[in-house]
Amino acid sequence: MNKKIPGIYNSLQEIAWHFGNHGVNGECCGDLSLVEFMALKKAYENIDFSIQEIGCALNFTKSGASRIIDRLMNKGYVTRERSPIDGRICCVPLTAKGTEVVTSIMERYTAYLDEVLKDLDPPTIEKIKDGLDILLKEVRRHESPFIEN
Amino acid sequence: MNKKIPGIYNSLQEIAWHFGNHGVNGECCGDLSLVEFMALKKAYENIDFSIQEIGCALNFTKSGASRIIDRLMNKGYVTRERSPIDGRICCVPLTAKGTEVVTSIMERYTAYLDEVLKDLDPPTIEKIKDGLDILLKEVRRHESPFIEN
DNA sequence: CGTAATGGTTGACAACAGCAACCAATATTG
DNA sequence: CAATATTGGTTGCTGTTGTCAACCATTACG
Questions:
Q1: Residue A148 — pLDDT band, cuts 50, 70, 90?
Q2: What was the pLDDT predicted at A26?
Q3: Which of A14, A15, A56, A147 is the mutation pick for testing B, counting most B CBs within 10 A?
Q4: Quick one: pLDDT at residue B20?
Q5: Of the N and C termini of chain B, which has fewer Cβ atoms inside 10 Å?
Q6: Contacts of B124 by beta carbon, 8 Å cutoff, 6+ apart
Q7: Domains in chain B, please, with CATH?
Q8: Count of CB atoms situated within 10 Å of the CB of A115
Q9: pLDDT tens for residues A82-139?
Q10: Gyration radius from chain A CA atoms
């Protein structure tokens, strides 16, 4: 094992915690929990995703996913649309309000990140980006098993 | 704003999600939730932390922290010890079993990370580590406000 | 002293996600 | 084509979890 790995693990866990449920969050997502925001973001990025595909992408069971979509619907951010091709499938298009909310949250996050990194010079920021991208690429290659229920 | 920031935000959020509650987790912490593991780790790393300090470090209210410690106690991983100096304060020393568990989980995480990164050459791994460390340092300088209740 | 402040605990509550059973729609098979 | 299997989604029920507010005990302060 490369001797840098434990250090990477420690930093990574702290960063993941910070950007996860209990870190930045609290007010950063407005009236959305992190989970709801992530689901909304998936629906935003993949206009043709079904409810299960959203759940799958976030490691939820289909019932969990259905409930998250319930909440997003109650808040007026998405609607349910049965697919005309396959009547079992529900797509989840965003409302105008939903699009507005998801983009504004993303902007807030990036603004926060910009604030955090504002004292670094461009090559250093480049280095952070490269490191994260490589890491992410390797992580994706080792996808965790999907949940099916 | 540096134009790399949005990309960093996206990668970071995906990575944080992956290493957070709904990603790797599930079985990776044995009989501990991620929250419980993080609390146990804090107690392990800071032998003199009070219950509130652990909660504070993880962004929990004091009652939330107390309940997490409850669960760790019920599982036999920590004990509550009133401080002899200030009788209000509870320290949370780990039991032998608790120490064994926390180290074994950390080992499992590092082993997983090693597996994920095994195809990268040392300079690339170095680059990831440097990027994360710089990022973490900046994040720490912008600590989120503490929760007090 | 008596009052305030601090650390911790607990009862009540609401949010949340899983399971299993269910319905509706599509696929498959004989 | 009819009968059955499979798939996507929903829902009743449940157990876990974390917050709030009220509380107790201990320490600090006037």
A1: very low
A2: 57
A3: A15
A4: 86
A5: C
A6: A134
A7: 5-141 (1.10.10.10)
A8: 13
A9: 999 999 999 999 999 999 999 999 999 999 999 999 999 999 999 999 999 999 999 9
A10: 18
Two structure tokens written together for A85: 């091709």
| Å between CA of A121 and C1' of C9 | 49
Run of H or E residues at A112: helix A96-116
All residues of chain B having their beta carbon less than 8 Å from the beta carbon of residue A117 are 2, 5, 8, 135, 138
Token readout for A9 is 């693990």
Q: What is the mean pLDDT of each run of 10 residues along chain B (149 residues)?
A: 92 92 68 95 96 96 97 97 95 97 94 93 95 95 54
Instruction: Answer positive or negative: Cα dihedral of B43, B49, B53, B57.
Output: negative
Q: Tell me which nucleotides of strand C come within 7 A of a protein CB.
A: 6-11, 15-21, 24-27
Q: How far apart are CA B127 and CA B122, in angstroms?
A: 9
**DSSP, residue by residue, A6-62:** HHHHHHHHHHHHHTSTTTTTTSTTTT--HHHHHHHHHHHH-TT-BHHHHHHHTT--H
The backbone torsions φ and ψ at residue A94, rounded to the nearest 5 degrees and listed phi first, read -80, 145
Whole-number pLDDT of residue A22:
72
Among residues A24, A49, A11, which one has the least CA distance to residue B19? Answer: A11
Q: How far apart are CA A91 and CA A79, in angstroms?
A: 8
Contacts of A17 in chain B (CB under 8 A): 20, 38, 58
Percent of chain A with pLDDT over 70: 91
- Return the ∠ at Cα B36 (arms to B148 and A35), rounded to 5°: 75
Question: Going by DSSP bridges, is the β-strand pair B90-91/A90-91 parallel, antiparallel, or unpaired?
Answer: unpaired
Reported as a single tens digit per residue, the pLDDT across B69-78 is: 999 999 999 9
**For residues A23 and A32, what is the distance between their CA atoms, to the nearest angstrom?**
15
